[in-house]
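ok so heres the complex, two chains, lmk if somethin looks off
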Amino acid sequence: MGRDAQNESGGKILLAGRYQILDDKPLSGLDSPHAEAFEARDLRASSRNVFALRCRADLQPRIDIIPPLSRMLRQPLVLPVEAGIVAWPQHGRRFVIVFEHDMDRRVLTGPGVRIAPMREDEVIRKIVKPLIPALKNLAARHIPHRAIRADNIFYKDSSKESVVLGECVSAPPALGQPGIYEPIDGAMCSVSSRGHGSIADDIYAFGVLLMVLLNGGNPCAGLSDEKIVRNKISRGSYAALIGEARVTIGLMEPLRGMLCDDPKERWTVGDLEQWAAGRQLSPKQPMLPVRAARSISFAGKDYVNLPSLAHAMGVHWREAAALIASGELENWVRRSLSADDLADALLQVISNTPSRTDGEAHLVCRALMVLAPGFPLQFKDFASRIDALPQAFAIEFDNESRRKTMLELFSTKMPQTYLQLPQASRGDQSALMKTFDMFSFFIENAQLGGGIERALYEANRAWPCQSPLLRDDYVTSPADLLAALDRLAQQGKTDRQPVDRHIAAFCCARVKGLPERIMKSLNAHDDVPAFRLGVLHLLAEVQRSDASRRYPALSRWVAQLMQPVTQSYHNRQYRGRLARELEGISGKGDLLELLFLIDSMEARSQDNKGFAQAQREYAGLARSVAWLKNGGLTSEAHVRAVGQQGATVISAVLSGAAVVFMTLLYAL
Amino acid sequence: MAQKAAKAKTRGQGGSGRTIMTVVLMIPVIAVLLPSCVVLLINMAPTAVAWMVDRARPRYLAITVGMLNFCGSLPAEFELWRHGQSYGIAFEVATNPYYWLIAYGAAAVGWMVYLALPAVLRGYYGMTTVSRLQSLKKRQAQVVEAWGEEVAALAEESSTSRSKR
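and the predicted structre for the whole thing:
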């Protein structure tokens, strides 16, 4: 991957010095939900067809899977060939991915579009068989595609006899997936919080894709996401999606297998491959929830099974709190479901949840953990797979109400509670626990370099810096940050400080071993020189990681900001000299040199000592002045005392002289 | 405590003992030099007056007048000793206005020095104060120029605390 991609060169947008992107030629037909497509050219192989996707600046593309995907040659996949950051006119610096363009039109041009239903044999011949190798390869590399849907597959050529799978790297996993393509737990989640997912999720989405093509469009068109999920829970995904369509027994077998709601029982790529090779596998029976002896009325509807009710409670959480608090739910669970253990656990949750003004959401969240194990974590109007929380936090960071909800979720340690449930046991449990503890810590520690911004960057290691200063840039590494700030300085956009909450948190998360005193300086809100020095220190430490690069414009910007620091020295002469030297070396672009000059311990110590000495001298002078002004010399007492003593001395001298004179006179 | 009291008592006894010893030793000297002492006593009358007038300690007036008065008395003493130190000569010398003039004139000079010097010093100190104030303020300005107005903070602080006290 061309991480150090080239930027504009002579008006052209060049990626890695090889791929020219034509920003005036958009390819709307190849747009992804979160990326715009443009024509591109491979300057080294003019016959090669490529196109480019310009990713959103506020989202992190799946950078980690671009290299392995680009090596999956001769697979029915739209392959990324190069990726990197380019300077895009009027859009700042953006992440761009170049793909091979070896495909024809989309099979379905949009999620709501209808086409002529495909015949079963067509589905098997054109869709299933060509895509199995791609699914197999992805599974072998443990790369969930998470963008398998009817509007993301393309005919391979104009004959429309085969298809290729569209791209999946331009946005976080499953961010562009309609809920229908997600298994029950994924569909219950907010779009941002479905997470990395698994190959089983891909298999499910592939099953839904086949259903859509057999139906000629979305089989659940017109139904809300909530209704679709309710149907899937109550009737099983296969029954909920099949609708009125008729499927032969031959295709029913793989569809039931792929749409099995228990991921452990769901077909694997191997099962699909065996079926495609002609082997008969036992059809999966839908695993429907236990039906209650009598229904329970909730939010205007009657529910006869617990999972459907739990889903509805998650959606209507305020009414759910009232239902739980009334004891009606516990009675229904005990009597109609005959689940005494569950009812006792519910009672325990009620008694253990502290009664606070904001306790309703906590009560419902805890109750749903008990009532619906396997469901995502549901808190207020937000639901998320447990492993998707860090990424969801990043995606929803600018959504104030959602961010507030998530902060409440983290601060009440609900994710940790969820992870401690027996059914939530998983391989990455300790890592997740550590991540959520980190969230709790940084949410409470709101100082510059910490806070929610730090949690964002710690939990999402490749997430671009979201500082408002860098709105026109794409910064994923400390070196990128300094280069971006240098560009800002070159453009004269220096009206703000070069370090804000996002940048401080980003640096702390990405640069290890930053001295603690930097954070202390940055959080010295009332001490402007200390803060400014902290800014320089932080940026200098970032530069230390790649000391070979120079940032002259940034250096001059920071040097200008150092005026309060130079003013903090007492000695006027040294201030002047320091300012001149700062100006002199700022052009070199070496922030470390700047720091060493302005933050010299020896100079500071000498200045302080000299100042203390000068203070004492001044005080002594002031005392002398006061003494003189108060008549120290001219006071009557002083004059009299000195006069008396002086008269005595004069008398003694005269007497001595007279005695000597008379002695000599009489002696001679 | 008792030891201290005993020591003080011993010291007191020692002091008065020394005075008695001095008086005892001086009696033969006075007896032998009685004419000289009479002449000296008469000529040193201004010193006695100064001694009585000057209530301060140390008695600078008496010392100042006394030293010059003593010098002024020496010509009379020398005259007495030159003629054999008899009572008759002592009477002549003691009644000679010339010697009075010398002794009392010298005492008067001492007295005048004592009285005039403060006035002279007052004028001198007035001028010195002005010049030293200028010099000190100039140095203060130099310190402020080199270190800024903050350098005066300590002085202001101490002056404030002094004024509060």
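quick notes: Chain A touches chain B at residues 570-573, 610-611, 614-619, 621-626, 628-629, 632-634, 638-640, 642-648, 650-652, 654-655, 658-659, 662, 666 (CB under 8 Å). thats all i got rn
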